[in-house]
Automatic annotation (TrEMBL):
PROSITE patterns: ARGE_DAPE_CPG2_1. Keywords: Hydrolase, Metal-binding, Zinc. It comes from Halorussus limi. It comes from the Archaea. Residues 209-310 form the Peptidase M20 dimerisation domain. It holds the Pfam family Peptidase_M20. GO terms for molecular function: hydrolase activity; metal ion binding. This is M20/M25/M40 family metallo-hydrolase. Belongs to the peptidase M20A family.
């Protein structure tokens, strides 16, 4: 993004002082990066977020997240609400996740150092997405002052959620299941956007949609034989490998906004017996989809691939087990003319002096749950950085501050 500034339009606009304090914002981010919070291990950070909000009389609540069947996970989202003056005005959801990927071993320093150098703050999850979390927390604090002055018409709901990086997105899933999103009219998710956009983008940018995802879980059954006489058996490993290659060649869908779908084999496991033809193999394949590709379509594509190969092995095609059939990462697109998009465009011009680029996310996240499952117009706007999910991850601190300012101004505009 450009250096933070105030445009002529912002100078002319009457209203409260909306800018957040840059030093406080970066300090908040640094404190959170120094708290390790790999997915399923977010308790300490959730407690920090709760106490930070509580210290500012922002009335946080813990929201229980429980999944006893597959992961045996127990954790808590943290939510808080600002109540506007007009019950008929729209309600805006601000969503950010507290968890990170598991700590990467290749760091040459403390992966939770929070070190700042040349405008970059380093640490696991600094960009994905504690930078975005700090931004919405500071925006929420600023909006609380607007509410106190009677200048906020609609409600604003802050949700700091668990397990976005984990297998099922249990935190935001639970928001939807418990009806918390039912009363919302639109959502902002402060994920890092440009670094994972479908095309090359730089901040300022708004991402208005994302591809969806299915995960093939395929079992291949062959016939065991002694490894010195492979012709007497049917290698499930070889057939699974052939199928993995064939799946990468299927015709995927395309969309004018979301681009093309994709197929990527992720895992092939056939056990570890010595001198035996593998009789069973397990294959997992990622399938990113666009609007127009249903679960039935995705299954049929795999079935055709199997039929084309005429394998000797038996093949069972299914999808990754999930706690509930409703847990799906569906693709979505938010209309460029939606009021939230307009509010974010105006706020971006005010804060940065530039028009934001419009783009679309290449992968999936909690925004899919909100944009598809919850049916909310959802926009991704977040600070950028590099090396997300890897050693040396960092976020640009000036962009964290700018996102906080953009979200604050856009929320006031959208909520009336």
């Amino acid at each position: 993004m450009t250096e933070t500034g105030t445009s002529a339009d912002a100078d002319a606009k009457a209203g409260p002082e909306l800018a957040v304090d840059p030093d406080e914002t970066v300090d908040l981010l640094q404190q959170m990066v120094r708290i390790p919070s790999p997915y399923f291990e977010e308790h300490d950070l959730a407690e920090f977020v709760y106490e930070w909000l509580d210290d500012r009389d922002l009335d946080p609540e813990y929201h229980r997240v429980s999944e006893p069947e597959i992961t045996e996970y127990e954790g808590d989202n943290v939510i808080a609400r600002l109540e506007g003056s007009d019950p008929d005005a729209p309600t805006l959801l601000l969503n950010a996740h507290m968890d990170t990927v598991k700590l990467v071993e290749d760091w040459e320093e403390d992966p939770c150092s929070g070190r700042i150098e040349d405008g970059k703050l380093y640490g696991q999850g600094a960009c994905d997405m504690k930078g975005g979390l700090a931004a919405v927390m500071k925006a929420f604090e600023a909006l609380a002052e607007v509410e106190a002055n009677g200048e906020l018409r609609g409600d604003v709901l802050l949700t700091a959620v668990v397990d976005e990086e984990g297998p099922y997105g249990l935190g935001t899933d639970r928001l939807i299941r418990d009806g918390i999103t039912d009363e919302c009219d639109a959502a902002i998710v402060t994920e890092p956007g440009p670094i994972l956009a479908q095309e090359d983008l730089d901040n300022p940018a708004l991402l208005l949609g994302a591809r969806g995802r299915y995960l093939y879980d395929i079992t291949v059954k062959g016939k065991a034989a002694h490894g010195s006489q492979p012709h007497k058996g049917v290698s499930a490993l070889v057939d699974a490998g052939r199928l993995a290659e064939r799946l990468t060649e299927i015709e995927v869908g395309s969309h004018e906004k979301l681009g093309e779908g994709s197929v990527c084999p992720l895992m092939l496991n056939s056990g570890s017996q010595t001198l035996s033809v593998p009789e069973r193999a397990h294959l997992m394949v990622d399938r990113h989809v666009v609007i127009g590709e249903s679960e039935a379509d995705v299954r049929a594509d795999a079935e055709r691939a199997v039929a084309d190969l005429d394998l000797e092995s038996e093949v069972e095609i299914s999808f990754r087990e999930a706690p509930d059939p409703g847990i799906k990462y569906g693709p979505y697109v938010t209309d460029e003319n939606h009021e939230l998009v307009g509010a974010l465009q105006g706020a971006t011009r005010s804060v940065t002096g530039a028009d934001p680029a419009l783009g679309y996310f290449a992968s999936v996240g909690d925004f899919n749950y909100l944009g598809d499952r919850a049916g909310l117009p959802t926009v991704i706007v977040g600070p950028d950085g590099e090396n997300i999910h890897g050693a040396g991850e960092f976020v640009y601190t000036d962009e964290v501050v700018e996102v906080a300012d953009i979200v604050t101004q856009a929320a006031v505009e959208f909520c009336g």
